């Protein structure tokens, strides 16, 4: 039986691992601090539009607390800025079979990168021989230890999965079929595109708005600013010759399975991943791998991306100084971007 080791059991990882466990599938959730302690003592509380359940889970703090076997699949679901540490922590963990060590996780196990942005797959290829990208469309929130909120319904989300680079042999096909079967049973839509990266680049464009939500959070209209960042990013990606799934194809796929719904007792203004990082005061955000990714591509290809580059700067400053969501108005943000 395939076992999924979810490295980073926050909003996305907790939702995937919790749903798998709730469906009776084998999952290990990797967490830390008070969140880990709560998972181990009382389980994971899953709150959805239709459920409020506490799921018993197997939770650990690191690879020294679990014996990996060839039947394991690693799923990295940290923030992208945390991925290098997660990958180096797990890549050299021993894999056991027949009472002996048969290799390392990087040599023997597949790793699925369920993160925003498009950088983590390349990070993982430095350490793992078999890397798969996961394009995550799932409105999930993690603010309280031991609790994850999933706001999508009737399906919890849509997770495109594919080998990176885009190549599939019999072993890949078998794994992808198994993942699709298990994750579908856990209430997700799981398409298997021939190339997952155009889907991840399309999701990257959508995630460019995360920083506007985090900085302004209803304190003015950021629509025109978001449109500027979006248009700049699309021009940069086109100029770099990068394939991006069309808006029409993305919308058709996403709307077929889930839409946002209210979760009883959860305020409507709860935000996305960057908002959650500023709210929790983590001291870092993933914007360098969202808006900053557009700046990187622009710099690599002789283009300019001043709006997205400046947004990455403002995000780093906000995280470093403990700025909370809504501390900046839309007009102030426009001024700092030179767009007023």
TrEMBL record:
It comes from Friedmanniella luteola. Residues 5-156 form the Ketopantoate reductase N-terminal domain. Residues 219-317 form the Ketopantoate reductase C-terminal domain. Transmembrane segments: none annotated. The lineage of its organism: Bacteria, Bacillati, Actinomycetota, Actinomycetes, Propionibacteriales. This is Ketopantoate reductase.
């Amino acid at each position: 039986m395939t076992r999924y080791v979810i490295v980073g059991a926050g909003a996305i990882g907790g939702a995937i691992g919790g749903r798998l466990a709730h469906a009776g599938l084998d999952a290990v959730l990797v967490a830390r601090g008070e969140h880990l302690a709560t998972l181990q003592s009382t389980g994971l509380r899953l709150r959805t539009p239709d459920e409020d359940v506490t799921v018993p889970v197997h939770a650990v703090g690191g690879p020294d607390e679990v014996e990996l076997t060839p039947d394991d699949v690693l799923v990295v679901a940290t923030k992208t800025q945390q991925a290098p540490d997660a990958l180096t922590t797990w890549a050299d963990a021993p894999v056991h079979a027949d009472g002996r060590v048969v290799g390392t996780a990087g040599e023997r196990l597949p790793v699925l990168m369920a993160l925003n942005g498009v950088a983590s797959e390349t990070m993982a290829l430095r350490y793992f021989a078999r890397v798969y990208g996961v394009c995550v469309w799932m409105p999930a929130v993690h603010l309280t230890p031991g609790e994850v909120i999933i706001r999508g319904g009737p399906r919890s989300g849509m997770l495109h999965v594919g080998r990176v680079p885009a190549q599939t042999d019999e072993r890949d096909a078998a794994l992808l079929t198994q993942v699709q079967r298990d994750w579908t049973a856990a209430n997700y839509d799981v398409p298997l595109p021939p190339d997952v990266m155009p889907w991840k680049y399309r999701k990257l464009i959508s995630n460019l708005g995360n920083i506007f939500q985090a900085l302004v959070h209803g304190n003015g209209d950021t629509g025109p600013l978001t449109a500027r960042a979006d248009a700049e990013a699309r021009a940069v990606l086109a100029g770099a010759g990068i394939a991006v799934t069309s808006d029409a194809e993305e919308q058709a796929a996403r709307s077929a399975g889930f839409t946002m719904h209210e979760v009883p007792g959860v305020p409507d203004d709860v935000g996305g991943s960057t908002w959650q990082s500023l709210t929790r005061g983590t001291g870092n955000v993933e914007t360098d791998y969202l808006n900053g990714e557009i700046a990187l591509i622009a710099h690599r290809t002789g283009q300019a991306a001043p709006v997205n580059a400046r947004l990455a700067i403002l995000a780093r400053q906000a995280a470093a100084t403990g700025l909370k969501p809504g501390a900046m108005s839309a007009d102030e943000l426009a001024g700092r971007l030179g767009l007023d």
